[in-house]
Request: fold
Amino acid sequence: MLAKWLHKVLSKKSAKAAKKRELPFNQHHIHADELSFAAEKVIKRLHNAGYQAFVVGGAVRDLLLGMTPKDFDVATDATPEQVRKLFRRSRIIGRRFPIVHVMVGPETIEVTTFRGGEVSSQNELGRIMKDASYGTLEQDAMRRDFTANALYYDPEEEVILDFHHGYDDIVQRRLVMIGDPQARYQEDPVRMLRAARLSGKLGFSVDKKTAKPIAECANLLQREPPARLFDEVLKILFSGHAQACLRQLNSLQLNHVHPLLDALLPGAEGNDNIVALALHNTDERLRADKSVSMGFVLAAVLWPRIVSSWNREKAAGLRSNAAMNAAIAAERDHLDKGWGVPQRYSVVMREIWMLQPLFEIRRGSRPFRLLSQQRFRAAFDFMCLRAQLGEVDAEVVAWWQTFQHASEDERAQMIKTAPVQDGSGTKSRNRRRRRRSNSVRQDEA
Ligand code: ATP
Ligand code: MG
Reply:
């Protein structure tokens, strides 16, 4: 009740404060032709049908910063059903708040109807549970998270509408929450993760008042559905600025909100540098417009947990391969339950791990079998990362590098002259034998 009342009072207060500013082209310098073909088309058709329509959110912010927008979102006063009628290739999605995905060629434009000032339902902590009221442009601006995300660009007039000094905040490179930050985090705790991600990605400072309640509210994230948190974690990993985002998470004291983030945060237990290497590698690939595999990145992020368990099992006498299976089985519950990792990623990640011990065997037919595995390339790249950390000998990496590209005859020769077994396989067999005879001796005593 109190949270609801507070929200109403604070909303009214900030509603009064919201004063519209119109920024002309000679101030913002965004040309309509900087929009994607799809965004322009969607807005034009909505205008022709008599509706208001603007590009909003990250795209306007990124264009002002001279960055290429990741996607274009459109806000309109047309209801989802009205939007749906105007575009043949469109569908309504979203449970909490319905939005329309409009497909134009290969692009998807997210079209949202202006949100109203009232939220339909909140829980006892102020969390928005349902949110289906539509409203005016001004009300919509108030419901957005940061001032920099509440700019509305009209490509026909080439003006930007700014209700919350978002333009000035972008110029000053600072992230400022609209309204009362604490109440806004209570409404939707994921906004805290967005603060870390956007400030990391944009190189913005987080305004003091916006940052202050985060440490106290961080525990609210634990009540969010794992799949939604995982989605945000993915956005952090694939922002192209993963390391900067993680630094922001750390400085905003957003610790222990998701086990995956704990594994990522510098200084976390068992977190050696494979995580940093993988993130650096991912950031570079993304900036060079190359593809990155989610399964691969996850395999690296969670590797410190697996490797310590793998080493334990090997020390207990299991063969390298069996030890890896045991280590993966031990972590399985964490990954499949509470973490929200979709199966399509966890399958790849497990395969990459499972193939690691097989690089130790360079005799017989095993190397050929490993080479024919669908996930060989990813597993090999992963071994290269491990080698950079000294977990694997450079000689082993060089051998596999040559082996991949060698002729049949050369491969046969390489196998003949390769060491019998790397890693702990033979050693652990000997250890097991010794342990067996020890236990026999103890029994005898
Ligand atoms: P990105 O560069 O990652 O796309 P973005 O700001 O565009 O950043 P989106 O998730 O695409 O992020 O969201 C589009 C817009 O919707 C945001 O700019 C913001 O105005 C609004 N928005 C998104 N999530 C929230 C939220 N949790 N609370 C309030 N407003 C939000
Ligand atoms: Mg966006």
